[in-house]
Amino acid sequence: MFERLARQGYSLGRKFLKERDRAKDFYLGLILLAFALILFLWLIPSYVGAPLTQSHLKVRPNTFPNLIACVLALLAILLIYNSPLTSKDATRVEDKRFSWLIILCLAILFSYYLGVRVIGMLPASIVVLFVLMRTYGFRSWFLSILFALVLPFLLFVFFEKLAQVALPRGIFFEGWY
Amino acid sequence: MDMVLVAWQAVANYTADYIQNFGLGIAYFFTFKNVLAIFVGVAIGTFFGAVPGMTITMSVALTLPFTFNMEPLTAISLLLAVYVGAIYGGSISAILLNTPGTPAAACTCLDGFKLAQKGKAGKALKMANWASCVGDLTSTLVVIIICPLLGNIALYFRSPEYFALILFSITIIGGVTGKSMIKGLIAGALGFLVATVGMDPFLGYGRFDFGSLELMKGFSFVPLLIGLFAIPEVILQLNRSRGMRGQARITMVKSKDPRDSRLTWSEFKGSFRHMVRGGFVGLILGIIPGLGATPSAFVSYERARRNAKNPKEFGSGSLEGVAAAEAGNNGVNGSTLVPLLTLGIPGDVITAVMLGAFMIFDLKPGPMLFIEHIDLIFGLFCALIMCDVALRLVGMVFIRYAEKVATGIPTSIIFPVVVVLCVFGSYSINNSVFDIFIMLAFGMLGYVMTLFEMSAIPFLIAFVLAPMLERGLRRSLTLSGGSPLIFFKSPIAIIFFILTVLAIISLSRGVLRKMK
Fold first, then answer.
1. Which parts of chain B have pLDDT scores under 70?
2. Which of B20, B193, B210, B323 has the most neighbouring CB atoms within 10 Å?
3. What is the pLDDT of residue B510?
4. How many domains does chain B divide into?
5. Which residues 241-300 of chain B have a CB within 8 Å of chain A?
6. Nearest CA of chain A to the CA of B382: how many Å?
7. Secondary structure of B14-29 in HEC code, one letter for each residue
């Protein structure tokens, strides 16, 4: 098994350097294996609380996480072992998906989160809805502005008045009801 | 003679109890609010299901935040109705656009779109509607009869049995969803891991909280669900919608003959047996965890093709094919509820969402629910039957305007709206802005998982089941004084362990065969 792993690592390493071909499963397996080890050796011992005297306990708070870490490591090894040897069989990462659109989309989503924190739920939703509609390629300016104003307002009314959920006000409408 | 008498008495008692409980359920369910919830739910579901790119899970997940302030039965009926509607709605775009609105409708495309090309879209849509109703009703009626019986069996499940059962469910779900069994199981393990974040349920010690009060509470189910299932689709659709710009829409073939958009009695009668068979296929596949609507549609279709009078028609526009596929995928509606209600174990994402909804209302599905809230269970059965009525009526309206609905709304409106709904929904469960961040973070994780062709379904179900699994493990080990032998003392647990091993063997063999 180790010989196979070593051979696999070697051939993939060479491929990666030469042709930048990627066999996803192999790398996924490596990442997961590393993660499982980090869990087992560092995260679980330091970040799982435990009583000082554990001798009376048959099962501890860290039993279940440790068990999962072991299973994860085992599965990661299986994944590496099963991953296709040559890049020809491997499903390649579709480069198309890593376009600037993804970055843009994520940027919009996370600025939405920040927007809710700072300017409040309603204004942030209006801005983001408009920006997203333009990004998705909605043509009409008028309709997108109208829609971006109406829908968040309706949702606002539903959640505030019917569902009694206090939505974040933000700096502009602090204390408004 | 005595035995017969005892048996007869047991049956009589059961029937009497049954009728009494059903009465309670009817009294509890039939209020204006609940019936309205069913109709609204089916309409929302059918609409979302018909929009390509909106999955069934997304529809149910985005409806969930709107139900927080409702009564439990109204809320769960609404979710159930959205689910039933979405499965049916998927067939509308499958027939009209050759794009299944939901994966479960992929099989309906085979014949449905061929019929639409011949100008018989109306006929196909009506057949799909009838088949959905009949298939669903068949399996629902059987479920209503057997479910309370299974609830009694579930009383024998204690900690070791639950541990074994959950292990078995996750193995099956991880094994059959997605392309690779190992990746499915990895997703399950990650789901268990994420669920341990927060307070340890037994001793109250923090786990992976990194000193943050927000993390100490653990991840909420709703933001996690919405993030995992809606955000990746939003990102992927953005790429697709920009790529699609300027592409011609499929032109609809319109027939002038009014007979082509009508369904005749003989056509209905000819397909009726396929519908009922589809209902039974859905019933059986729905009870097994991890399977569900998509395989059920294909199995039902295949069975119908073998039993049809002219099997050659299948694939080139057969009404019987549409009926079989639709009855198959709607047949699972009732039966997926069986493991959820009797054992508290969800077999697929939708029932996992339902379990989440039950938990929001402090209800714990399982054998105790049959004792404490029997009216709720029978109320749900009434809701299921009502869903079929609503499906028929709402379907009639939709078919008339289906074309406009399915083709009229561009993705450039749908997905921005989905984003806004995601944010409102994840905030409103706990009134916490941090939950929006959690939702986005899990959205990223979900997207990365799609890049690695990993299914998010085992992840979510493992997340939901983790507390039960850990409780099962720790309680059993505490009882036995730390000896794992306790798991092999219960016959039910042993059966599930054997089934798990068998499942792993058969699934990995299947995977190997596919690789060759």
1. 1, 101, 178, 241-258, 402-408, 510-516
2. B323
3. 65
4. 1
5. 241-242, 245
6. 26
7. HHHHHHHHHHHHHHHH
Cβ contact (<8 Å) for A138 and B428? no
B488 domain residue, yes or no: no
**Which whole-number Å values give the CA distances from B14 to B19, B81, B249, B370, in the listed order?**
9, 29, 58, 14
Q: Do A105 and B238 touch (CB under 8 A)?
A: yes
Residues of A with CB below 8 A from B410's CB?
A: 138
Q: Secondary structure of B260-280 in the HEC alphabet?
A: HHCCCHHHHHHHHHHHHHHHH
**Distance (Å) from the C-alpha of residue B43 to the closest C-alpha of chain A?**
19
Q: Is the four-CA dihedral B472, B474, B479, B482 of positive or negative sign?
A: positive
Residue partners of A53: CB distance under 8 A and separation at least 6: none
Residue B206, H or E segment: strand B206-207
Q: How far is it, in rounded angstroms, from Cα B72 to Cα B69? A: 9
Cα A16 to chain centroid, rounded: 25
Residue B500 domain-assigned (yes or no): no
- CA B320 to CA B308: how far, in whole Å? 8
| Cβ atoms of B153 and B342 closer than 8 Å | yes
Q: What residues in B contact A158, CB-CB < 8 Å?
A: 66
Yes or no, beta carbons of B440 and A110 under 8 Å apart: yes
Q: How many CB atoms are located within 10 Å of the residue B257 CB?
A: 9
ipTM comes to 0.83
- Compute how many other C-beta atoms are within 10 angstroms of the C-beta atom of residue B484: 11
On whether residue B321 sits in a domain, the answer given is yes
Considering only CB atoms, B428 lies closest to which of A133, A135, A163, namely A163
Q: Which helix (H) or strand (E) holds B207?
A: strand B206-207
In the three-class reduction of DSSP (H, G, I as helix; E, B as strand; rest coil), residue A48 is classed as: strand
**Residue B195 domain-assigned (yes or no):** no
Partnered with residue B206 across adjacent β-strands are B199
Q: What is residue B198's three-state secondary structure?
A: strand
Contact (CB<8Å) B238/A135:
yes
Q: Taking the domains of chain A in order of start, what are their residue ranges? A: 2-93, 97-162
pLDDT in tens, A59-103: 788 888 999 999 999 999 988 887 765 554 444 444 454 567 888
Whether residue A154 lies within 8 A of chain B, CB to CB, comes out as no
Hey, is the C-beta of A163 within 8 angstroms of any chain B C-beta? yes
